[in-house]
Protein backbone atom coordinates (compact mmCIF):
# COMPACT_ATOMS: atom_id res chain seq x y z
CA UNK A 1 0.00 0.00 0.00
CA UNK A 2 1.39 3.40 -0.96
CA UNK A 3 1.93 5.96 1.75
CA UNK A 4 -0.01 9.22 1.89
CA UNK A 5 1.36 11.99 -0.30
CA UNK A 6 2.33 15.21 1.47
CA UNK A 7 0.60 18.53 0.78
CA UNK A 8 1.81 22.10 0.45
CA UNK A 9 -0.85 24.81 0.54
CA UNK A 10 0.44 27.72 -1.55
CA UNK A 11 -0.92 31.25 -1.71
CA UNK A 12 0.02 34.73 -2.85
CA UNK A 13 -1.11 37.73 -0.83
CA UNK A 14 -0.84 41.46 -0.24
CA UNK A 15 -2.56 43.38 2.57
CA UNK A 16 -4.90 40.54 3.49
CA UNK A 17 -4.72 40.79 7.29
CA UNK A 18 -8.50 40.77 7.66
CA UNK A 19 -9.00 37.61 5.61
CA UNK A 20 -5.92 35.53 6.44
CA UNK A 21 -6.87 34.07 9.85
CA UNK A 22 -9.99 32.22 8.67
CA UNK A 23 -8.28 31.16 5.46
CA UNK A 24 -5.26 29.74 7.28
CA UNK A 25 -7.40 27.99 9.88
CA UNK A 26 -9.25 26.19 7.08
CA UNK A 27 -5.98 24.65 5.81
CA UNK A 28 -4.13 24.24 9.11
CA UNK A 29 -4.17 20.46 8.58
CA UNK A 30 -1.81 20.66 5.58
CA UNK A 31 1.83 19.55 5.87
CA UNK A 32 3.02 23.09 5.15
CA UNK A 33 1.60 26.46 4.17
CA UNK A 34 3.57 28.73 1.85
CA UNK A 35 2.67 32.41 1.47
CA UNK A 36 4.43 34.65 -1.01
CA UNK A 37 3.81 38.27 -0.03
CA UNK A 38 4.09 41.01 -2.64
CA UNK A 39 4.65 43.93 -0.27
CA UNK A 40 2.01 44.04 2.46
CA UNK A 41 1.87 47.15 4.62
CA UNK A 42 -0.56 45.67 7.15
CA UNK A 43 -0.09 42.72 9.53
CA UNK A 44 -0.40 40.02 6.86
CA UNK A 45 3.13 38.67 7.29
CA UNK A 46 3.00 38.66 11.10
CA UNK A 47 -0.39 36.92 11.09
CA UNK A 48 0.71 34.26 8.62
CA UNK A 49 3.91 33.54 10.53
CA UNK A 50 2.08 33.37 13.85
CA UNK A 51 -0.23 30.73 12.36
CA UNK A 52 2.60 28.54 11.15
CA UNK A 53 2.94 29.60 7.53
CA UNK A 54 6.31 29.93 5.83
CA UNK A 55 6.39 33.46 4.46
CA UNK A 56 8.49 34.74 1.57
CA UNK A 57 8.51 38.13 -0.12
CA UNK A 58 8.70 39.13 -3.77
CA UNK A 59 7.75 42.71 -4.60
CA UNK A 60 8.74 42.81 -8.28
CA UNK A 61 5.20 42.20 -9.47
CA UNK A 62 5.03 40.65 -12.96
CA UNK A 63 1.46 39.45 -12.88
CA UNK A 64 -0.58 36.82 -11.09
CA UNK A 65 0.68 33.90 -13.16
CA UNK A 66 4.37 34.48 -12.55
CA UNK A 67 3.77 35.30 -8.88
CA UNK A 68 2.08 31.91 -8.43
CA UNK A 69 4.98 30.22 -10.20
CA UNK A 70 7.42 31.84 -7.78
CA UNK A 71 5.30 30.90 -4.78
CA UNK A 72 5.15 27.25 -5.87
CA UNK A 73 8.96 27.09 -6.07
CA UNK A 74 9.06 27.47 -2.28
CA UNK A 75 6.85 24.41 -1.77
CA UNK A 76 8.64 21.20 -0.75
CA UNK A 77 5.87 18.57 -0.70
CA UNK A 78 4.35 16.16 -3.21
CA UNK A 79 1.10 17.96 -3.96
CA UNK A 80 0.07 21.62 -4.25
CA UNK A 81 -3.23 23.13 -3.17
CA UNK A 82 -3.31 26.68 -4.54
CA UNK A 83 -5.70 29.03 -2.73
CA UNK A 84 -6.26 32.74 -2.14
CA UNK A 85 -6.71 34.66 1.10
CA UNK A 86 -10.41 35.17 0.38
CA UNK A 87 -11.03 31.43 0.03
CA UNK A 88 -11.83 28.78 2.66
CA UNK A 89 -11.59 25.01 2.39
CA UNK A 90 -14.77 23.41 3.73
CA UNK A 91 -14.62 20.17 5.78
CA UNK A 92 -16.15 18.28 2.85
CA UNK A 93 -13.48 19.54 0.47
CA UNK A 94 -10.76 18.70 2.97
CA UNK A 95 -12.05 15.13 3.17
CA UNK A 96 -11.92 14.85 -0.64
CA UNK A 97 -8.37 16.17 -0.70
CA UNK A 98 -7.27 13.75 2.01
CA UNK A 99 -8.69 10.86 -0.03
CA UNK A 100 -6.70 11.96 -3.07
CA UNK A 101 -3.48 12.19 -1.07
CA UNK A 102 -4.00 8.60 0.07
CA UNK A 103 -4.39 7.31 -3.49
CA UNK A 104 -3.69 9.96 -6.15
CA UNK A 105 -4.21 9.29 -9.82
CA UNK A 106 -1.23 9.38 -12.14
CA UNK A 107 -1.34 12.42 -14.42
CA UNK A 108 -4.45 13.73 -12.71
CA UNK A 109 -5.33 17.32 -11.75
CA UNK A 110 -8.21 17.94 -9.34
CA UNK A 111 -10.78 20.70 -9.59
CA UNK A 112 -12.71 22.41 -6.80
CA UNK A 113 -16.21 23.87 -7.02
CA UNK A 114 -16.07 27.48 -5.85
CA UNK A 115 -19.14 28.92 -4.13
CA UNK A 116 -18.75 32.68 -4.30
CA UNK A 117 -20.18 35.39 -2.07
CA UNK A 118 -21.67 38.44 -3.74
CA UNK A 119 -23.15 41.19 -1.57
CA UNK A 120 -24.27 38.87 1.21
CA UNK A 121 -25.41 35.93 -0.93
CA UNK A 122 -23.56 32.78 -1.93
CA UNK A 123 -24.49 32.58 -5.60
CA UNK A 124 -25.93 29.37 -7.01
CA UNK A 125 -26.32 30.49 -10.63
CA UNK A 126 -25.14 33.45 -12.78
CA UNK A 127 -22.14 31.44 -13.97
CA UNK A 128 -20.63 31.62 -10.50
CA UNK A 129 -21.42 28.09 -9.41
CA UNK A 130 -19.98 25.53 -9.49
CA UNK A 131 -17.19 27.65 -11.10
CA UNK A 132 -14.73 24.76 -11.10
CA UNK A 133 -11.06 25.69 -10.79
CA UNK A 134 -8.04 23.39 -11.04
CA UNK A 135 -6.26 23.79 -7.72
CA UNK A 136 -4.90 20.42 -6.49
CA UNK A 137 -2.03 18.99 -8.51
CA UNK A 138 1.33 17.25 -8.36
CA UNK A 139 4.24 19.51 -7.51
CA UNK A 140 7.17 19.53 -9.98
CA UNK A 141 4.80 18.42 -12.78
CA UNK A 142 2.32 21.25 -13.23
CA UNK A 143 2.50 25.02 -12.81
CA UNK A 144 0.61 28.19 -13.70
CA UNK A 145 0.93 30.07 -16.98
CA UNK A 146 2.40 33.57 -17.36
CA UNK A 147 -0.88 35.49 -17.72
CA UNK A 148 -0.98 38.83 -15.94
CA UNK A 149 -4.55 38.24 -14.77
CA UNK A 150 -7.07 35.37 -14.94
CA UNK A 151 -4.11 33.02 -14.85
CA UNK A 152 -4.70 29.28 -15.09
CA UNK A 153 -2.90 26.02 -14.49
CA UNK A 154 -1.01 24.45 -17.38
CA UNK A 155 -2.45 20.96 -17.23
CA UNK A 156 -0.72 19.55 -20.36
CA UNK A 157 -3.45 17.09 -21.24
CA UNK A 158 -3.91 15.83 -17.69
CA UNK A 159 -7.04 14.02 -16.63
CA UNK A 160 -9.16 16.48 -14.60
CA UNK A 161 -11.19 14.97 -11.75
CA UNK A 162 -13.80 16.92 -9.78
CA UNK A 163 -13.49 16.92 -5.99
CA UNK A 164 -16.51 16.83 -3.69
CA UNK A 165 -17.10 19.75 -1.35
CA UNK A 166 -16.96 23.50 -1.97
CA UNK A 167 -14.20 26.05 -1.87
CA UNK A 168 -15.86 29.11 -0.34
CA UNK A 169 -14.88 32.32 -2.10
CA UNK A 170 -15.58 35.64 -0.38
CA UNK A 171 -15.49 37.47 -3.67
CA UNK A 172 -17.48 40.60 -2.92
CA UNK A 173 -17.85 41.66 0.70
CA UNK A 174 -17.30 45.37 0.02
CA UNK A 175 -18.78 46.71 -3.20
CA UNK A 176 -16.25 49.50 -3.71
CA UNK A 177 -13.27 47.22 -3.06
CA UNK A 178 -14.74 44.73 -5.51
CA UNK A 179 -15.16 47.44 -8.14
CA UNK A 180 -11.58 48.62 -7.69
CA UNK A 181 -10.34 45.07 -8.16
CA UNK A 182 -12.46 44.64 -11.27
CA UNK A 183 -11.09 47.86 -12.72
CA UNK A 184 -7.52 46.71 -12.04
CA UNK A 185 -8.22 43.37 -13.69
CA UNK A 186 -9.71 45.11 -16.72
CA UNK A 187 -6.63 47.30 -17.07
CA UNK A 188 -4.25 44.34 -16.84
CA UNK A 189 -6.35 42.33 -19.30
CA UNK A 190 -6.34 45.19 -21.82
CA UNK A 191 -2.60 45.77 -21.46
CA UNK A 192 -1.83 42.10 -21.95
CA UNK A 193 -4.00 41.87 -25.05
CA UNK A 194 -2.57 45.11 -26.44
CA UNK A 195 1.00 43.88 -25.93
CA UNK A 196 0.05 40.71 -27.82
CA UNK A 197 -1.03 42.85 -30.78
CA UNK A 198 -4.79 42.52 -30.22
CA UNK A 199 -7.14 45.36 -31.17
CA UNK A 200 -10.90 45.81 -31.06
CA UNK A 201 -13.36 48.01 -32.89
CA UNK A 202 -15.84 50.44 -31.38
CA UNK A 203 -18.82 48.21 -32.13
CA UNK A 204 -17.08 45.31 -30.42
CA UNK A 205 -17.20 47.21 -27.11
CA UNK A 206 -20.99 47.42 -27.28
CA UNK A 207 -21.65 43.87 -28.46
CA UNK A 208 -19.39 42.31 -25.82
CA UNK A 209 -20.94 44.47 -23.08
CA UNK A 210 -24.51 43.56 -24.05
CA UNK A 211 -23.49 39.92 -24.47
CA UNK A 212 -21.98 39.78 -20.98
CA UNK A 213 -25.24 40.99 -19.42
CA UNK A 214 -27.38 38.53 -21.36
CA UNK A 215 -25.06 35.63 -20.63
CA UNK A 216 -25.15 36.26 -16.87
CA UNK A 217 -28.82 37.20 -16.52
CA UNK A 218 -30.44 34.84 -19.04
CA UNK A 219 -28.16 32.03 -20.26
CA UNK A 220 -26.65 31.43 -16.83
CA UNK A 221 -29.95 31.94 -15.01
CA UNK A 222 -28.84 34.95 -12.99
CA UNK A 223 -32.50 35.80 -12.45
CA UNK A 224 -32.65 32.83 -10.04
CA UNK A 225 -30.14 34.58 -7.77
CA UNK A 226 -32.59 37.38 -7.00
CA UNK A 227 -31.48 40.98 -6.65
CA UNK A 228 -27.83 39.96 -6.45
CA UNK A 229 -28.20 38.13 -9.74
CA UNK A 230 -29.39 41.27 -11.51
CA UNK A 231 -26.67 43.39 -9.94
CA UNK A 232 -24.03 40.84 -10.90
CA UNK A 233 -25.24 40.86 -14.51
CA UNK A 234 -24.81 44.63 -14.56
CA UNK A 235 -21.38 44.40 -12.91
CA UNK A 236 -20.23 41.77 -15.41
CA UNK A 237 -21.40 43.99 -18.25
CA UNK A 238 -19.56 46.94 -16.72
CA UNK A 239 -16.38 44.90 -16.32
CA UNK A 240 -16.59 43.74 -19.92
CA UNK A 241 -17.15 47.32 -21.08
CA UNK A 242 -14.06 48.45 -19.16
CA UNK A 243 -11.93 45.69 -20.70
CA UNK A 244 -12.86 46.34 -24.30
CA UNK A 245 -13.05 50.12 -24.00
CA UNK A 246 -9.53 50.12 -22.52
CA UNK A 247 -8.26 47.86 -25.32
CA UNK A 248 -9.92 50.10 -27.91
CA UNK A 249 -8.35 53.21 -26.32
CA UNK A 250 -4.89 51.65 -26.22
CA UNK A 251 -5.14 50.73 -29.88
CA UNK A 252 -6.32 54.22 -30.76
CA UNK A 253 -3.44 55.86 -28.89
CA UNK A 254 -1.01 53.47 -30.56
CA UNK A 255 -2.27 54.24 -34.04
CA UNK A 256 -2.08 58.01 -33.51
CA UNK A 257 1.59 58.01 -32.47
From TrEMBL:
Q: Which Gene3D superfamilies match?
A: Spore Coat Polysaccharide Biosynthesis Protein SpsA, Chain A
Q: Where does the source fall among the domains of life?
A: Bacteria
Molecular-function GO terms, alphabetical: transferase activity
On whether Cytoplasm is a keyword of this UniProt record, the answer is no
Q: Does the keyword Nuclease apply?
A: no
Going by the UniProt record, its keywords in alphabetical order are: Transferase
By sequence similarity, the record places it as follows:
Belongs to the glycosyltransferase 2 family. WaaE/KdtX subfamily.
Q: Which PANTHER family match?
A: GLYCOSYLTRANSFERASE, POLY-BETA-1,6-N-ACETYL-D-GLUCOSAMINE SYNTHASE
Q: Provide the protein name.
A: Glycosyltransferase family 2 protein
Q: Which organism is it from?
A: Serratia symbiotica
Amino acid sequence: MSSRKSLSVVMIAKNEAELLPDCLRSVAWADEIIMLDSGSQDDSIAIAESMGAKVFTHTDWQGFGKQRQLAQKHASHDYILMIDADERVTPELRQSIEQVLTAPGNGTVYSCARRSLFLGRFMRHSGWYPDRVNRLYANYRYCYNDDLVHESLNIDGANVVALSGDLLHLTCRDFFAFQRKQLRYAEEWANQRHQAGKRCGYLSILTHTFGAFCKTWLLRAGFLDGKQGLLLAVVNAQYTFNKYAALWALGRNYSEK
